[in-house]
Write a structure and sequence with these properties.
Mean pLDDT: 80
Oligomer: single chain
Number of helices: 7
Structural class: mainly alpha
Helix content: over 70%
C-alpha cells in the first residue's frame, strides 16, 4: 500500500486510528471482566485466587512489554552523540519483529477460537484488526525501513496464517484463551495510543472522528 510511505499520514490512517480506538474501548476492554470470571473459576483451588484482577495484570503486562520494545527501538535510533539516525540496528529489529510475530500469530489464532455471536461479529473483528495491522505496518516500516521490507513484512504476513492453522488443528481451554485475549488487549491499547492517534501535523480529525463514530455505531448496532 503505497500511501503508507507518504508524510503526512493519509486520511485512511487517521480513519483506521478511530476504528482501532473504538474497538479497544467499546468492545475489547469490556470483555476483560468476562475473562476475569473465567480465570477465577479456573483458580478456585489455587493460592493465586487470592490475588485480585488477574486478567487486568495480564493486559498490563502486554502493554508494558510493547512499551518497552518501543523504548528499545527509540534508544537504538540515537547514536552516542544523541543524534537521530534513520534505522535501528539488526538485533533490535529481530527482537521487535519477533514480538510482533507472536502478536500477529495470537490474533490469527483468536480469529478461530473467539466465540462470535453471529457473522457480523466476525466481520467487525476482521475489520478492526485489519486496519490495526495496517497501522502497525506503517509504524514498523518507519522504524526499520529497508530491512523491514526485505524480511519483516513477509514474516508478519505469514504469522496470522500460522495462528489460524494452530487454531484449526488444536484445542485449548478457555483459561488460556482468556489470558491470550487479555495480553492482546494490552498490546492493542499501547499501539492505539502510540501510533494510531496521529500526531498533530499528520492527522485528519474528521477522518479520525468518522472512524470512531462509525465503528462504535456498528458495535452498538449488533
Amino acid at each position: 500500500m503505497q500511501f503508507v510511505n507518504k508524510v503526512p499520514r493519509s486520511k485512511f490512517l487517521s480513519f483506521s486510528a478511530g476504528v482501532s480506538v473504538s474497538y479497544v474501548f467499546v468492545d475489547l476492554l469490556p470483555k476483560l471482566n468476562e475473562y476475569q470470571q473465567i480465570i477465577l473459576r479456573n483458580l478456585q483451588n489455587s493460592v493465586w485466587r487470592n490475588i485480585e484482577n488477574h486478567i487486568y495484570i495480564v493486559a498490563l503486562l502486554g502493554l508494558v512489554i510493547f512499551y518497552s520494545l518501543e523504548r528499545l527501538v527509540k534508544v537504538s535510533k540515537k547514536n552516542l552523540y544523541n543524534k537521530e539516525i534513520k534505522e535501528t540496528n539488526l538485533s533490535v529489529f529481530w527482537i521487535h519483529i519477533s514480538a510482533f510475530t507472536v502478536y500477529n500469530t495470537i490474533i490469527g489464532y483468536l480469529l478461530v477460537k473467539e466465540q462470535f455471536e453471529n457473522y457480523f461479529g466476525i466481520l467487525f473483528y476482521f475489520l478492526a484488526l485489519s486496519v490495526h495491522l495496517v497501522t502497525n505496518d506503517w509504524s514498523l516500516r518507519r522504524d526499520h525501513m529497508k530491512i523491514y521490507d526485505q524480511y519483516g513484512r513477509y514474516i508478519l504476513t505469514l504469522a496470522p496464517v500460522i495462528g489460524w492453522i494452530i487454531g484449526v488443528t488444536t484445542e485449548v481451554n478457555e483459561f488460556v484463551l482468556s489470558v491470550l485475549q487479555a495480553f492482546i488487549a494490552g498490546g492493542v491499547v499501547l499501539n492505539a495510543l502510540k501510533d494510531e492517534l496521529p500526531e498533530e501535523q499528520e492527522s485528519s480529525l474528521s477522518s479520525f472522528l468518522s472512524g470512531v463514530i462509525g465503528y462504535t455505531f456498528l458495535l452498538l448496532l449488533i
